[in-house]
Specification:
By secondary structure, the chain is α/β, with parallel strands linked by helices. The protein contains six helices and five strands, in the order E-H-E-H-E-H-E-H-E-H-H. Strand 4, helix 4 and strand 5 form a beta-alpha-beta unit.
């Protein structure tokens, strides 16, 4: 069973992504977190095949969160899923060690590609990032 953590404070995003992932990967188990503290607690106690993080959750220092995750679990496969512009934020997170940065404006095909790449320990770069 593939265990995945979705960390996003918007229920509609979490539910939509959960539904899509369960169709894509029927044998997955998906945990959720709605802020950085609860996400980090779950990550410390469980090894996830994939961690999908929004970088705009309440009371969360996201650079600190990513650093802490990778310090405690350096093998973590992190995909950032955010409304923040990738041309501004992606480079920093990729340099920190996340495997992908995906815009919430991405198509279903792009979401599928990003999830597949990151879960298979490959770096995901959107067409925009690849072009840059």
């Amino acid at each position: 069973m593939t265990e995945i953590l979705l960390a996003d404070d918007h229920t509609v995003i979490s539910e939509g992504l959960r539904t899509y992932i369960q169709k894509m990967m029927p044998h997955s188990k998906i945990d959720e977190a709605h802020d950085g503290d609860s996400a980090f607690k779950k990550i410390k106690h469980k090894d996830y095949a994939l961690i999908i993080l929004d970088i705009n959750m309440p009371a969360t220092d996201f650079f600190g969160l990513v650093s802490n995750i990778l310090a405690v679990k350096p093998e973590s496969k992190i995909l950032i899923f955010s409304m923040n512009p990738e041309e501004i934020f992606a480079k920093k997170y990729l340099q920190m060690g996340v495997l992908g940065y995906l815009s919430k404006k991405a198509s279903i095909d792009e979401i599928k590609q990003a999830i597949n790449d990151v879960i298979n320990n490959k770096r995901y770069l959107s067409p925009l990032l690849t072009e840059m």
